[in-house]
Structures are given as structure tokens and as C-alpha cells.
Design goal:
By secondary structure, the protein is mainly alpha-helical. The protein is globular, with a radius of gyration of 18 Å. The structure holds magnesium ion. The site of magnesium ion has 6 residues, from loops.
């Protein structure tokens, strides 16, 4: 994993957010002020604008730089929250070792940072209703030693369940909370945009797992050769 993987994920998230921009805007116009998707697009475009800088870094440093760029370019509440996610993950990169459990811990550290920043858990009709269940599902699947392809296929389903759950929730945080009972019956735009980005990132990472695959015996370097080809799929990036 390195800065190139970070940019691949940013590109995937950007393409999918652009594709769903009208839908997110309409959701946000119902219970917010309609600017959420534009804030996200601005942040993702800012990251694409410093592609060379991010791609030159190792994974932790790339996440940290992305966090500071998002913080300085994204307005509304989503800037500080997504920045906290990236920064929280960057601080938990030391433990990465190719084991899915180490990635689950890294993602959970990011989600914890968002939770601290936003002072919100699940059930308040926010992005946390996607981020937290996805972190829990990731941890559960990793603990069961599920394969990476299965994990990447399951997380979008958990994210989608989280989005649907926000429909019946009463908003108690953010602008939507001003609507009180009238917020019930609407899907939260922040939960939906988080689902869209998580799904795009999982699909992107799934493609690289499929393409590069677990190393076959013929791919392995000669005995004694210095190479990372025999390292697990995830850590080989
Ligand atoms: Mg807004």
C-alpha cells in the first residue's frame, strides 16, 4: 500500500460521486442545504490536484497529506469529518502487516477519530450510520479470517443497510435536526455519499486483488532474491 493506492481510491470515489451527484443533491435538498455533494467534489478534486505529491509518499504519509488537503478545501461539516477519518487511519498504519485484521484496526481508528470529532455515534441519521457498521463488519469478517475478496464484497452491502436504516431515524445532529420529525422518512445524504465512496473503494481494491491475485509459485522470486512478491496480496501494494 502506498500513495498510488490512495489516489486510485480517490479516483474511484470521485467517479462514483460525480455519477451520483444529482441523487445526493436531491437527498440533501430535502433535509439539508444541498451543498454536501459539491463539498465532496471540491475535496476530491483538490486531492486529484496534488496527485503527484500524494503518489510519491508511503501509505501513512499519503493519508496524512490527503487529510490536511481535505481539511483546508472542504466546507460544511464534511471537511473536518473526512479529514479526521484519513488522519485517524494514517496514525494507525504502523500495525499494517498484510493481515486483514490490521486493516480493520486501521479503518476503525479512522472511524473513532470521526466519532470524536463529530461527537456522534450511530442512530443520529448521519454518515456514522454507515461508517460504524462497516467498521464493525470489517472487524468481524477479518476476525473470522475471511478472504479479502469476500470482505470487499460484503462491506458495500453493510454500507447499503446502514443507509436504509437512516430513513426511519430522527435527525439529532446537523442541519437536518432543525426539521425534527420532518426529517423522518428521508435517507441521510451523508450516509449515502459515504456508502457510494466505500463501495467505489471496495470495487477498486477488489479489481487489484483480482488482477494481481495471490502470487503463484511461478511468480515467486528465486530463493534469496530480495523481492516483496511473496508478501500477501494486500501488503504487496
Ligand atoms: Mg450542508
Amino acid at each position: 500500500m502506498n500513495g498510488k493506492v490512495v489516489m486510485d481510491c480517490v479516483d474511484a470515489a470521485y467517479a462514483s460521486i460525480r455519477q451520483h451527484a444529482d441523487e445526493i443533491m436531491v437527498l440533501d435538498q430535502s433535509i439539508g442545504d444541498g451543498d454536501h455533494v459539491f463539498n465532496l467534489i471540491r475535496g476530491l478534486e483538490a486531492l486529484r490536484g496534488i496527485r503527484g505529491d500524494i503518489e510519491a509518499l508511503d501509505f501513512a504519509a499519503a493519508l496524512k497529506l490527503a487529510a490536511s488537503k481535505v481539511l483546508s478545501t472542504v466546507g460544511g461539516s464534511s471537511g473536518p469529518l473526512f479529514s479526521s477519518l484519513l488522519l485517524g487511519m494514517s496514525r494507525a498504519c504502523d500495525q499494517l502487516n498484510g493481515d486483514p485484521r490490521s486493516y480493520a484496526q486501521m479503518y476503525a481508528a479512522g472511524v473513532d477519530a470521526v466519532q470524536l470529532r463529530g461527537k456522534t455515534g450511530r442512530g443520529s441519521k448521519t454518515m456514522m450510520d454507515v461508517l460504524i457498521p462497516v467498521a464493525e463488519r470489517l472487524s468481524e469478517l477479518a476476525d473470522r479470517e475471511s478472504g479479502v475478496p469476500l470482505i470487499l464484497a460484503e462491506l458495500p452491502k453493510e454500507a447499503a443497510r446502514g443507509v436504509l436504516a437512516t430513513r426511519d431515524m430522527l435527525a439529532t445532529k446537523g442541519r437536518a435536526s432543525f426539521l425534527g420529525e420532518r426529517s423522518v422518512g428521508h435517507i441521510d445524504p451523508g450516509a449515502r455519499s459515504s456508502e457510494i465512496m466505500i463501495t467505489a473503494v471496495c470495487e477498486r481494491l477488489g479489481k487489484s486483488v483480482n488482477r494481481e491475485g495471490p502470487p503463484r509459485p511461478t511468480d515467486l522470486p528465486p530463493r534469496g532474491a530480495a523481492s516483496d512478491a511473496s508478501v500477501g496480496v494486500v501488503s504487496s501494494q
